[in-house]
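FAQ

Q: What does a record look like?
A: Structure on top, sequence underneath. For example:
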């Protein structure tokens, strides 16, 4: 899995997977100015792109701008690489009640399906929508949860909030529940990083360094595999014991280092991990 993806947004450039951004905009033209290049970059990189639109008028404007920006848009649509979904269909149950839990589950199902079809990740954009204070509070809790749910997952998402509907308190809440905020200053889009996220990132980087140290010096034989059972990493110990060079193992199916008597068991174990998240 690649470490960075190009956003198509000048103020962001490249970001790691798991990035959660809010876009604070005044006019719909501002929204399209940022999100159309963002989606185009995703399609060019072989990602699945999902745009949750706010009503039929915005959907039509999005389609028009995307057709102008992406010459082979129809091909992407036919392959299922791009979907436009109305916010009411995404966030609300058939009876009209807000159902953000269902929205989160849909995202996970779609990601799993698109990855199985060879796409490299999922790029999302959605308009924040609420009809009451209770829905606003539920939406902010949902946004906060996204920061945890997309960690180490090949997803990048931009959540869009119209400044005309947000007072100072709402703007502060939106910024605090996202890793970065995109705002227009003096006619240019600027990225503002959440201070709490910056602290968390520093701790994550320290944790990653500790993990690599333990991984490389462990007495046990350790490999990392992707969803298809292909080896993407291994420690020094496994190379020393089995007599391989790293380039001989990486990219191979895990079966090459497992005795044939245990192939079936290893396959079942991997399937269980993919289904439950643990063994």
């Amino acid at each position: 899995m690649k470490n960075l993806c190009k956003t198509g947004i000048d103020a962001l450039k490249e970001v790691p997977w798991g990035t959660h951004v809010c876009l604070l905009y005044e006019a719909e033209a501002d929204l399209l100015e940022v999100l159309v290049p963002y989606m185009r970059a995703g399609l060019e990189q072989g990602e699945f792109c999902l745009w949750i639109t706010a009503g039929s008028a915005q959907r039509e404007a999005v389609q028009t701008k995307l057709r102008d920006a992406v010459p082979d848009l129809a091909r992407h649509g036919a392959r299922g690489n791009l979907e436009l979904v109305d916010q009411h269909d995404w966030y609300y149950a058939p009876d009209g009640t807000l159902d953000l839990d269902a929205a989160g589950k849909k995202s996970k199902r779609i990601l799993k399906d698109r990855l199985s079809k060879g796409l490299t990740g999922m790029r999302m954009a959605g308009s924040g929508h609420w009809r009451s204070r209770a829905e606003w509070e539920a939406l902010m809790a949902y946004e906060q949860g996204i920061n945890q749910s997309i960690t180490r997952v090949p997803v990048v998402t931009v959540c869009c909030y119209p400044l005309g509907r947000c007072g100072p308190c709402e703007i502060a809440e939106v910024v605090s529940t996202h890793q970065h905020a995109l705002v227009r200053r003096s006619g240019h889009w600027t990225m503002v990083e959440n201070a709490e996220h910056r602290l968390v990132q520093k701790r994550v980087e320290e944790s990653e360094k500790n993990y690599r140290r333990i991984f490389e010096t462990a007495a046990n034989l350790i490999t990392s595999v992707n969803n298809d059972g292909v080896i993407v990493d291994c420690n020094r110990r496994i190379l020393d014991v089995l007599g391989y060079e790293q380039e001989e193992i990486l990219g191979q199916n895990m079966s090459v280092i497992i005795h044939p008597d245990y192939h079936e068991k290893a396959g079942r174990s991997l399937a269980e991990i993919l289904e439950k998240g643990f063994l």
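Q: Is there anything notable about this one?
A: The longest strand covers residues 155-162.
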